[in-house]
Amino acid sequence: MAQIAPLADPLAGAPRPVDPLPDPARPRARRWPHARLGRVLAPFWHLGDHPPAQSAGAVPINALAPSDIGLLIVHYALLGAEDRKARFRSNLSFSALSHRYHTLDWGSFRFLGARVGQRLVAVAELAPLPDGIGPGRELALSVLGPWQHSGIGERLMQAAMRFVCTEERQPLVLFVRPDNKPMVRLARKLGGACQAENGDYSFVFPAA
Known about the structure:
By secondary structure, the protein is of the alpha+beta class. It has a domain at about 55-175: Aminopeptidase (3-Layer(aba) Sandwich), CATH 3.40.630. The chain is built from 6 helices and 7 strands. It has helices at about 35-40, 70-80, 80-90, 95-100, 150-165, 180-190; strands at about 60-65, 110-115, 120-130, 135-145, 170-175, 195, 200-205. Helix 2 (about 70-80) runs antiparallel to helix 4.
């Protein structure tokens, strides 16, 4: 039986049509010390790229609970490297942040957060003072980059003062590096009594 040669492809060798609407270029992946971090933070990248659309005065400030641990870890992970070093004296990795807040004694610590949707744009961490210093709480304040200098940090510090100094009737202590001039100005503006300790400033807000 005679063999039949296959039909030639009439389009073989012809130039391929150009897509008039090519897909936009995807942003380059950000490098992080922990592989999970990119996946966890993917919905939040825009926080660092755009200014806040909501007025800082309209952002609600509420107490945080253990059920907010995930949002809390994401907040600290989204801080810039310098802000994270200023907050923890180390650029903690995502796994280190996760371990810290999943093992924290939530019976001793208190947290206040400024929330926009499901995102914490600012956090006040209120830790018990170390033994030997006396009763009171230490304040650690952190604000995401786009919300810095918006007034949300001042509102959050005032809320922390009301909770600790007025409701708990305890002094509130804030430790600040001298080169953190915006925080130094804010602490002085709100009436903190300043002392120099081990190269840092400590501002004390007395119990009401």
